[in-house]
Design a protein that fits this description.
This protein has an 8-stranded mixed β-sheet with strand order 1-2-4-3-5-6-7-8. The protein has a single domain, classed as Rossmann fold (3-Layer(aba) Sandwich). The protein is built from 6 helices and 8 strands; from the N terminus they run E-E-E-H-E-H-H-E-H-E-E-H-E-H. By secondary structure, the chain is an alpha/beta fold.
Length: 236
């Protein structure tokens, strides 16, 4: 639905210093923060594991909650290069995620992470490219809840296999979520899903393209974080 990931915004590194730790798990890293009993996986956007805003989001989800947040480096140290963003041809980005972040790779990294941390069940948060992984994992029997934040490349068919409540937080320039909502509304848990559109926000404001030094962007992002924590507390 939304392809704003391909054409809009500029990645922002920021000066925030993450409170978590980075651990090596096999041939990839994991950003870990919190020590709660509920495991929350995070699938970042195309700019990878080292973006401070994304780590800040993870930190705030873990803060004051019963959550241990794990953000695996699905791209294994090869995020989309910021100097080439946005690409002149969006196919370049599609080719990139199909190479370093395809579904097989995502599954391999996720399974290795779950095994390393001895995780039996989890909730999952995803941004942009990561939002696609959320709707995929929302069909997994081990998944308890999904949070899809300005998700990209979503299709109505993604909703068919979803089996747990999902919170969709969209920017004003993201594509409509109605095609998925129409399907989810018919499921037994449909009324437990949450949909919120931040019409004044641009795609990416909660992760790699979010300038949280701006009060309006920070306020909207923090609201998404609060709703995320409430959603996980309720459904996980």
């Amino acid at each position: 639905m939304s392809d704003a990931c391909c054409t809009k915004g500029t990645p922002i590194r920021g000066d925030y210093c993450g409170k978590g730790v980075v651990k090596q798990v096999g041939d990839f890293r994991v950003y870990e923060v919190g020590s709660g009993s509920k495991t929350v996986l995070v699938a970042y956007d195309i700019f990878g594991i080292d973006v401070n805003t994304t780590r800040h989001f993870c930190d705030r989800v873990a803060e004051g909650s019963d959550c241990r947040v794990l953000m695996p480096d699905y791209f294994r140290g090869n995020p989309f290069p910021t100097e080439n963003f946005p690409p002149a041809d969006r196919q370049v980005l599609y080719d990139f995620v199909n190479k370093v972040g395809n579904w097989q790779i995502v599954q391999e990294v996720t399974e290795a992470t779950l095994k390393h941390y001895n995780v039996q069940n989890f909730s999952i948060i995803g941004f942009c490219w990561g939002g696609k992984q959320v709707v995929r994992y929302a069909a997994d029997p081990r998944c308890r809840a999904g949070i899809c934040v300005h998700g990209s490349l979503l299709e109505a068919s993604d909703a068919e296999n979803i089996r747990v409540p999902v919170f969709f937080a969209n920017a004003g320039d993201d594509g409509p979520i109605d095609p998925l909502k129409n399907i989810l509304d018919k499921k037994p848990f449909g009324s437990q899903c949450l949909y919120k559109v931040y019409s004044t926000m641009s795609h990416g404001w909660c992760a790699g393209r979010g300038d949280w030094n701006k009060p309006d962007i920070r306020e909207a992002a923090f609201e998404v974080i609060d709703l995320t924590k409430q959603f996980i507390a309720k459904h996980h």
